[in-house]
Amino acid sequence: MELFHRHGYNATGIAAILRQAGVNSGSLYYIFPTKEDLLLALLERYKELLWPLVIQPVFDRVSDPIERVFGVLEGYRQMLLATGCGMGCPIGNLALELSDTHPVARKLIAENFEGWRLAIRGCLDDAADRLPPETDRDHLATFVLTVMEGAMMQAKAHRTLEPFEASVAQLREYFERLLADGREWSTPKPER
Amino acid sequence: MELFHRHGYNATGIAAILRQAGVNSGSLYYIFPTKEDLLLALLERYKELLWPLVIQPVFDRVSDPIERVFGVLEGYRQMLLATGCGMGCPIGNLALELSDTHPVARKLIAENFEGWRLAIRGCLDDAADRLPPETDRDHLATFVLTVMEGAMMQAKAHRTLEPFEASVAQLREYFERLLADGREWSTPKPER
DNA sequence: GTCTATAACTCGATAGAC
DNA sequence: GTCTATCGAGTTATAGAC
């Protein structure tokens, strides 16, 4: 994971994997017959790690569903901070490197995205009564992932947190306007 | 460009480049001493092509500055459509593959992003009087690039236009709310 | 299951003739 | 400037002993 995240799939040689894992080629190939099999296992593992590593820690300390969305984004900001904006999103990196040429990996990457997106959509559903009733929460969840990935990419390219923070600030502006609209639909009620 | 766009930098061998260009290795290496030199020249070329290929055609047929922003995004939708959502953004792909390991390429990629972002910011500046006065147009331009890249990534991973269109629709929602706010600042004036 | 040695191949890059 | 032939290193993957 470390090597694929840092250098990408193609740029990571089996030799480097063996060195870093402290394993000999015979052992690796006994379990993963090809390099791609290892990649697929890794992508399955990322799917398993989504909740325990990315979502649950945020949910444990934040209860407001909207703030949970921004809490997840804050987690990625911390990752950028910890890596000097270098490595970016492990799934996003592989998505762009491999989607065209590795159909099986592409499917697993799409499933990783879908899991992430559904976690966010759950938050939006929990806040449904605070959003304008016509809001497409499914599209909005897609949008949150879009912003996260696009913002990580620019942070990585510029090696600065700034584009990430600017993007999240704009997403926050959008949510504030949605929530303000939502209040217009719910506050008149008690006045009747 | 075609090969790096489709397969990425590392996955494209010099042999494939020679074949596709109909050139022999002696000629290629006479001009580009290393593969990385070719990459850098390609990234410079993308910078040159931004205006004539991406921006100007949209500006020629669309005059409204806000619609110009969405016109540029529509251009990327057309690219997704033409390639079956396969290849994605050529700069974005290279950004995630190489930013960590190729510092000179990373800088040129950042410059490509900056050129794109400034073209969008120009549109936003032209529409400044229609936006809320507190709007950070620089951040908003970053946000538009963020949405474009994040949306392209998801389209590529899912091999569907849907996430791209959903993301652009959400960005449109955001702009509509900003413009509605902007009108609240300008319409009261004639009433004085 | 794990070890070492290595096969089979492709990689980026070069040499030297023309 | 361009050609062909090829180098040496690095690639993924395998063989066969233990």
Structure description:
The structure is a homodimer of 192-residue chains. By secondary structure, chain A is mainly alpha-helical. Chain A has one domain (35-186): Orthogonal Bundle (Tetracycline Repressor, domain 2). Chain A is built from 10 helices and no strands. Chain A has helices at 2-7, 14-21, 25-31, 35-61, 65-82, 90-98, 103-126, 137-158, 162-186, 188-191. The radius of gyration of chain A is 20 Å and the shape is elongated. The N and C termini of chain A lie far apart (58 Å). At the A-B interface, helix 6, helix 7, helix 8 and helix 9 of A face helix 6, helix 7, helix 8 and helix 9 of B. Chain A binds a DNA duplex (18 and 18 nucleotides) through helix 3.
Helix percentage range of chain A: over 70%
- In quaternary terms, these chains amount to homodimer
Give a count of the beta strands of chain A, DSSP E runs of length 2 or more: 0
Q: In whole angstroms, how far apart are the ends of chain A?
A: 58 Å
Largest sheet of chain A: none
Question: Low-confidence parts of chain A lasting 5 or more residues at pLDDT below 50?
Answer: none
Average pLDDT number of chain A: 96
| CATH architect. name of chain A | Orthogonal Bundle
Taking all Cα atoms into account, the compactness measure Rg of chain A is 20 Å
The percent range for strand residues of chain A is under 5%
Name of the CATH homologous superfamily of chain A:
Tetracycline Repressor, domain 2
The domain tally of chain A reads 1
- CATH hierarchy, class of chain A: Mainly Alpha
Examine the coordinates and then state which fold CATH places here, giving the name of the CATH topology of chain A: Tetracycline Repressor, domain 2
Q: What gross morphology of chain A would you assign?
A: elongated
| Element-by-element helix/strand order of chain A | HHHHHHHHHH
Greatest chain-chain contact:
A-B, 50 and 50 residues
Pairing-aware structural class of the strands and helices of chain A?
mainly alpha
Please tally the helical runs of chain A, counting DSSP H or I stretches of 4 or more residues.
Answer: 10
